[in-house]
């Protein structure tokens, strides 16, 4: 199969869909790999590295799309890329369709085979291709939240870990999934007091077992959330519904109950956000303020640490890329049920029910 790796063109996105190590494995399996010139520069992988691994370097993104049977990338195609997608071409990437109707309609129109990293699901019900980026984003949420709690960034002027004689900050984490646990771990490591909330008691019991005593759990409901937001300094939104839009756990009116300078980091922004006032921002312009509450809602948080993120992502995507290349998408998905769950749009037909539900469409679900 001919596999293409284009340069990411989303704002401040420095990750790349595949490392030279991944290219080497594909070439070893007799596949052809085209990499756009400069695609890996931001992650510290250069043209010569890809060439040494066996890739052919192409000058433009248009060439990569035109000459490839499968495109492997990181972020969803943006408007400039929509028309480059060819009928029957496999696009393997993060899509997050439920948060973008224009993207969904564009991919339906182009009739490609859209396989979404974030909905590939293994037998245990986990999301193996989302996990490493969730780990990065969860850890970064605390790193960024601590920074924006500083007064020059319009935060409360609070050191998250405190100092002797001064109490540490308080962190509220919504969701005890991968993002939430990684955020809690980082915040606890800094010495902050952490409250983590979820509706899944099994997850809360797990957190209670593995976290230090200054990480406490609480069952998530609106009453409890309203209580905690009044006293916590940093709020991390880490709620995920597989392939669907995130629920609004914090509504606009709740902002007035928070102290001025409170910081919200909504990691769920890719799925529409779990805060009503969330709107996607970029690393170039990462925050905005509503009712004296600082919102950090960067839609590609792991893109700020592209080397770590690219290596972590290729580690988990490569086995699936090899299956798709070796067998073709139909046979690969028939033999691997977890990969089959990654199918979102097939040649103009939506086949993942949560997408239809997000837009209230009546399109029949095929798989």
From TrEMBL:
What EC number is given for this enzyme? 1.4.1.1
What Pfam family is a match for this entry?
AlaDh_PNT_C
Gene that specifies this protein: ald
Segments forming domain Alanine dehydrogenase/pyridine nucleotide transhydrogenase N-terminal: 4-137
**What superkingdom does the record give?**
Bacteria
Q: Which residues form the Alanine dehydrogenase/pyridine nucleotide transhydrogenase NAD(H)-binding domain?
A: 149-297
| Family from the record | Belongs to the AlaDH/PNT family.
PANTHER family, per this entry? ALANINE DEHYDROGENASE (PTHR42795)
Enzyme type, top EC level: oxidoreductase
**Keywords tagged on the record:** NAD, Oxidoreductase
Q: What is the protein's given name? A: Alanine dehydrogenase
InterPro entries attached here? Ala_DH, Ala_DH/PNT_CS2, AlaDH/PNT_N, AlaDH/PNT_NAD(H)-bd, NAD(P)-bd_dom_sf
SMART domains noted in UniProt = AlaDh_PNT_C, AlaDh_PNT_N
> Does the keyword field hold Hydrolase?
no
SUPFAM superfamilies given for it? Formate/glycerate dehydrogenase catalytic domain-like (SSF52283), NAD(P)-binding Rossmann-fold domains (SSF51735)
MF (Gene Ontology): alanine dehydrogenase activity
Q: Does the keyword Metal-binding apply?
A: no
Show the catalytic activity: L-alanine + NAD(+) + H2O = pyruvate + NH4(+) + NADH + H(+)
Origin species: Croceitalea marina
